Sequence to fold (393 residues):
Amino acid sequence: MSNPIKMKNILISILLLASPLIWGQTAFYNSGGLQLHGNIQIGFHTNFINDSEFTTTDGLIGFYGDNPIALQGIIAPTIYDAEIFLSNNLLLENPLNITNNFNFIGGNVESVLSNETVYLNFEQNAFFIGENDVAKVTGFAAITDKRFFSFPVGDETLLRPLLLESDDSNDFALCAYLFENPSNPTSIPERFDTDNIVRDIGFVSDQEFWIIQADQPSVVTVSWNPRSALDNLATSVEEIILVGWSKSSNQWIAIGNSAISGDLNQGFLVSEKFVPSDYAAITFGTTPLPTDTFAVNNPTLGNYFLSPNGDGTNDFLVFDEIEDVGANQVFIYNRFGQKVFEMANYVNEFGGVSNIDNLVLSREDGLPEGIYFYTVTLFDEGLDYQGFLFLDR
Fold:
């Protein structure tokens, strides 16, 4: 376009310009010189190819009609006000920057999830209205120079927003939602194996996840609904935690919650503070450990009775299943606090005889009867136990 548009308070409906594209539609092509002056309104009913600088300081640009519309070109347009009212989607093949307001009326703003360089970007003072299950961002939404923002993201079916609150303004932040199994997503090449977890996580959701990238320490708020199927992960909402795929360790680790509300059918959580860019994905997980672990089977180790007389009953201090849980350390103390026994990787060896060089006399005769105090550390499980035993002679 060689001449600026200088009309005011009118609606220009751009229907048929330039050459046909893949849907048999025509396209509006800006190769330079396009300007908007005054409170002008432009309605696109066809594709927009932007190959030159295009920035509006006021006015409205809308995307309307029954066919999908593609935003293409080599330069991202920057628009003051925009709105979408489409039976199909606005397909972003180029970033779109908003400086004031974006109005979601109908239709999704879609971008390819395998390409984080294409997004709907809300600049410092920009906001949006009208987001709902049929009008939202189904690709990447981004922000520039913002500290607080609710990303209007979701999949084709549902709006699944993520609220970001950072300590300071983010130069740039990016967010998307995927209703896909993190272990085998179809929209991105990365894989986030839900079985690759640290020990303080029980299970990780295989239903959905968010991608959130922001460099400032932040808290996020995310919600769940019946489609999240959290009742397949947990028996109560208190077990639900936020987990993230750590970029440094390539495994799911616990981020944790500062608040949680609802039930397994519907609710939300507020995370602990973390740096989102340290994680490639976040989703819901559970704690405590799953029900087949040592910790759940043994909430305490209890108190024990020891009578080492060779009759085959209570001759040794036996901690059931301790040999199956990896590295451990056992200490035993007398009632004065003197350590009388210690052993790494204990497997039920204590039979009332000290193995410590201290004030114990007549070691071969064994320790005197009485009350003793024990501690057990399970290093791999991150667990500590303590209790008493009575030694009978």
Observations:
- The mean pLDDT is 88.
- The first strand starts at residue 11 and ends at 14.
- The chain is about 0% helix and 40% strand.
